[in-house]
Amino acid sequence: MKPKFRFTEKALQKIKKENLYRQLRYGRVCGPHITIGKKKLLNLCSNDYLGLSARSPRHIQMQSSSRSVSGNDILFKDLEDKLASHKSQRGALVFPTGYMANLGAVSALAGNEDLILSDELNHASIIEACRLCRAKTLVYKHNDTDDLLKKIKSNSAKTKFVITEGIFSMDGDYARLDEIAEITEKCGAVLMVDDAHGDFAVGDDGKGTAHLFGVAKKVDVYTSSLSKALGSFGGYVASEKSAIDLCVNRARSFIYTSALPAFLVDASLRRLSLNRTPNQKKLQKNAFCLREGLKKSGYEINTKTHIVPLIIGDEKKTLEFGRYLYENGVFAQPIRYPTVPKKSARIRVSVTARLTDAQIENALDVFERAGRKFRAF
């Protein structure tokens, strides 16, 4: 175990001493029964009050309980083992959504004697997690490692957490993970990376943003999504086993909610077993072609990822811009306050591997005409 995770063992010891320790049992729900190991039991923990889930075939059967009660299908263990390996971590925990994974991980790991340093452009789920958590939070300027270093040195908190996205969802830029990882390593801080937009999409075999930057082993806690590049549904946390155990025991967004249906867990497992390399290469090619085409049309493009924001600024003009795209066969949503700051409204373009060269060319033609009409460049 990494020395910086000793706080998790201490917290778990306290939970055990108070007889409040939770352990997950993996089972298989079928009708009124649950099978745990080789033991078949009558399931009196389900919330499937009308028994309607029994009408569904097994492969689409819905869960009707939290994972700490009777909703912990054995498929979760298979998926979590694979996700831990995928992120080169010792454990993983699946949540119903990526939003809930952030809420759960941050609130479970950071205590009232701790400090969180959060990038100013972090996702809303991270911002909410910091607000709900008992730790003090300092926001550092976007991707500004000098500001991060200054603020991390200014506080003598018991444990310090640095939280950043891997690829920022609205600006499409990479976090400076190589520099951030160096700072956290020197300062003994816990590095948490929300890799929702980089996971399965970038790095060798889609291992994510930290792998792309060569610092995968320096990230202490990952949160991510199964519903973006993997094309399934849910979210997860990957970290030390003690940190995962603490999430099981403390994360309210894990404890007090129903489990993902088993068929969605199975869908994630199936997608993890696919050869995704051709799709990843096609995604990178498509993103490059779209970015370069937009640059040639006069747009200022600063991103190097598959998220390409076209910043218009004025909210009304951005809505009109989006409407023009819609009327001309391109669906790219206008993004406005509070998702982004006022007067920085934008069209958020996200590229996929499904796009053909012809479709990209057609979209670029529409963007060029829209840019001229609205003088966006």
From TrEMBL:
The keyword Transmembrane helix does not apply. Residues 40-366 form the Aminotransferase class I/classII large domain. It comes from the Archaea. The keyword Acyltransferase applies. Its cofactor is pyridoxal 5'-phosphate. Pfam families: Aminotran_1_2. Its EC number is 2.3.1.47. Keywords: Acyltransferase, Pyridoxal phosphate, Transferase. GO terms for molecular function: 8-amino-7-oxononanoate synthase activity; pyridoxal phosphate binding. InterPro entries: Aminotransferase_I/II_large (IPR004839), AON_synthase_class-II (IPR050087), PyrdxlP-dep_Trfase (IPR015424), PyrdxlP-dep_Trfase_major (IPR015421), PyrdxlP-dep_Trfase_small (IPR015422). Belongs to the class-II pyridoxal-phosphate-dependent aminotransferase family. BioF subfamily. This is 8-amino-7-oxononanoate synthase. It comes from Candidatus Nitrosotenuis uzonensis.
